[in-house]
Write a structure and sequence with these properties.
- With about 450 residues, the chain is α+β, with helices and mostly antiparallel strands.
- The strands form three sheets. Strands 11-12-10-9-7-14 form a six-stranded mixed sheet, with helices on one face.
- Helix 7 packs parallel to helix 11 and helix 8 packs parallel to helix 9.
- The chain starts with a helix and ends with a strand.
- Its EC number is 2.7.13.3.
- One of its GO terms (cellular component) is plasma membrane.
- InterPro entries: BphY/WalK/GraS-like, HATPase_C_sf, HATPase_dom, His_kinase_dom, HisK_dim/P_dom, HisK_dim/P_sf, PhoR_N, Sig_transdc_His_kin-like_C.
Length: about 450
């Protein structure tokens, strides 16, 4: 650039000197100098006019030819134009490859922009949601009108939520899974999958478990009744006492397993309802704590602390089951003389129920799978404690039905902290004084 400026300045000096010399020969050098400056200025303005006209016409064709610094500027812009054209062609080719590859996918892909409006979608998405070319620019919720999906799209933490499952628009027999990923400035990517087959298989599994569990209740009741009769009478020989006791314990364990399976099946298959009953948290925690103390038999120190007296809007039985499963698990896996703390606190994020113990703890590799049914960190120890392996799976489904979440923190050998997080919308505050109770010696 410096060389170009020097060259142009030299050109201007040469013109000025030439016109000045010519002016001296004609005894009118000022007029000659003004004429030189005017010619140079006219030349610059004319080149600028040509350049502006070329830019205004969209830089069609090659840049105008010129000499001096303007010729070099034209050449630079022409090279930039060619480079831009090549890059544009590469981008178009890349876009075509992306569109061709996404068109071959069985999953639907939808690109949204400007307030969840349709910008682009592949053929699979168009087939699954019934989209047509004329629908471009319209909001996606105009085609998927399910209220659950509308709430899902408008949620602030869309990226952190689980994929949503709902029937396809206009085809109740087809089940779709939709997952929204937001990025950039008000843009989003929606993945649509047809999970009809998996949904039907899962429904068959649930129905099978529910039916088998229901059918097992009657024979188990009969077996337990006869075992109790034999235990309380003198009909059985003394040598049968130990086998009968073990049979009675296993029958009770089987009955507990069947009851948990039935409860889990009901939670999975019945419709989710927000619940219209206000469940007092203080009373619920105190009741669960009393059950835990009875189950502990004085072997543990159980403390309850409620910062606020709040009600949760939901199903009383389901909430009791979730709270009780966490507390009873703490009793099962905390050694004798261990401490268990039940706490309820409330903040701007909602209400939080925590169960903390100083028991055996859980290794980090097991935490992601704790809510899987029948998953056991230590199978032998779990069977000895009488657990069914379904407690945390039940807690998970209860929380899903109450728009709540569970957090787990644990260190092997030091204890665990389970926390249930309930959103603000599920809580109703009361004016009753908070409770801080302790079972001394327990």
């Amino acid at each position: 650039m410096l060389d170009r400026s020097i060259g142009e300045f030299s050109r201007f000096v040469i013109i000025a000197l030439g016109c000045t010399i010519l002016g001296f020969t004609s005894d009118n050098w000022p007029l000659a100098l003004i004429a030189a400056l005017s010619c140079y200025l006219f030349s610059v303005l004319w080149q600028q006019h040509r350049f502006n006209r070329w830019l205004t016409n969209g830089r069609r064709g090659p840049a105008p030819t010129a000499f001096g610094i303007w010729g070099e500027i034209y050449d630079d812009f022409y090279r930039m134009q060619r480079r831009h054209r090549r890059e544009k062609q590469k981008l178009h080719a890349m876009l075509r490859r992306v569109q061709d590859s996404t068109s071959a996918l069985r999953e639907g892909i939808i690109a949204l922009e400007d307030g969840d409006n349709l910008a682009w979608w592949n053929p699979a998405a168009g087939e699954l949601l019934g989209l047509q070319a004329s629908d471009s620019g319209q909001s996606l919720v105009n085609f998927v009108r399910d209220p659950v999906f509308v709430d899902y799209m408008h949620s602030e933490n869309g990226n952190s939520r689980e994929p949503l499952t709902l029937p396809a628009p206009g085809n109740e027999a087809c089940m779709l899974q939709l997952e929204v990923t937001r990025y950039g400035q008000d843009e989003a990517l929606v993945i649509v999958r047809d999970i009809t087959r998996l949904h039907n298989l899962e429904q068959m599994r649930r129905d099978f478990v529910a039916n088998v569990s229901h059918e097992l209740r009657t024979p188990l009741t009969v077996i337990a009744g006869y075992l109790e009769t034999l235990q309380s009478s003198d009909m059985a020989p003394p040598a049968w006492k130990r086998p009968l006791t073990q049979m009675e314990e296993q029958a009770a364990r089987m009955t507990s397993l069947v009851n948990d399976l039935l409860l889990l099946a009901r939670l999975e298959t019945s419709e989710r309802k927000n619940g219209d009953m206000a469940v007092a948290v203080t009373e619920l925690i105190e009741r669960v704590a009393q059950e835990a103390r009875s189950f502990s038999g004085g072997r543990h120190h159980i403390e309850v602390q409620c910062d606020t007296n709040t009600s949760i809007s939901g199903d009383p039985g389901e909430l009791h089951s979730a709270f009780a499963n966490l507390v009873l698990n703490a009793v099962k896996y905390t050694p004798e003389k261990g401490e268990i703390h039940l706490r309820w606190r409330q903040d701007n994020q909602g209400g939080h129920f925590s169960v903390e113990d100083n028991g055996i703890g859980i290794d980090l590799i097991h935490i992601p799978r704790l809510t899987e049914r029948f998953y056991r960190v230590d199978p032998g120890r779990s069977r000895d404690s009488g657990g069914t392996g379904l407690g945390l799976a039940i807690v998970k489904h209860v929380l899903l039905r109450h728009n709540a979440e569970m957090g787990v923190e644990s260190t092997p050998g030091q204890g665990s902290l389970f926390t249930l997080h309930f959103p603000v919308g599920k809580l109703t505050s009361k004016a009753t004084p908070a409770v801080n109770s302790e079972a001394a010696g327990l």
